[in-house]
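Support case: user asked for a sample of complex input and structure output to validate their parser. Sending the pair below.
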Amino acid sequence: MATQRFVSLSRRLLRAGIAPRRVKRLIAELEAHFADLVAEQRSAGLSEEESESQAAVRLGTDDVLIANMLARPELHSWARQWPWLAFVLLPLLALPVQFVLSMLAAVGVLAFSTQVLGMSALHPGAVPWVVAGLQAYGMWIAPMAAAGAACFLALRSGALLTWPIVGSALIALLGAATNASFEWSPAVPRGALSAGIGLHFPDLGLISSLRATLTILTVLVPILWLRRKRRELSSLP
Amino acid sequence: MAQNASLMSGVPELLVLRLLSTQEMYGYELARAIRASTRQAISLGEGVLYPALHAMESRSFVKARRRTVSGRTRVYYAITPRGNRRLGELSGEWRRIAGGVRALLEGA
């Protein structure tokens, strides 16, 4: 963990997009270097306070180090080097993965309830609620989670929000194209669960458009508010 | 004519690789060695040294490993075969430039 002297430097480097594992090691090296400089000054006869002061001067300003780190793209985090991958493609891929997993979980709950617990359409217990919850997660929550995570990570790492906003829009459209249904009645005693992702963007209906809009607003409004708050805080003297 | 746009930016790399070609060192040791071996003519600030070391590591010119000596953990850097090749290139480029400057000064 960075000592107080290097906490600010560590934060600034992370916010500037330097890879976290590199920042951690760099801070450890600077701490050791600082200790060596202090010991050198002490052995020259200076007091502890004077030694620390001289060591700080020798170590140089944070600005120089940050500028030199930023001048080398290979030291940036992978998300900063390939923002389209980190904030668009991976979150976009995470959506169908979450959707499929939630539907598989619904199938598992239904199968377990009927085959192991012996439940039926006449005595379904909480199964319809659980399945409905899993479907709601896949269709409503998963897009928000994927887009929200992309935006939050971008905000935390100080990256531009352009790529996560593009990613959120695509995720919202893809999320709005998901559908799922569940029927479990005496006419369908084993239960029928269907789900899919229909990529018919030009034909998106009113409901789908509302779903996409809701996802975008739910994610972007708090993120933009958080960014504004951060800027206000960082502009304080 | 040789392209020397990276003339000065290549100096930290050259100095570090040259020193590491003799033995592995950690940051503080390197900073001291640079001052001593250049007769105090060059003092590489830590703000330049560490970014250069990390960049060289990411380009596989040096490799880093943690070592505990006398109860203190330090990151030691050692040159790699690729770093040795890079040192040869940088040394050749620097000698050519130095020769050119010397010729100019002596001719003037």
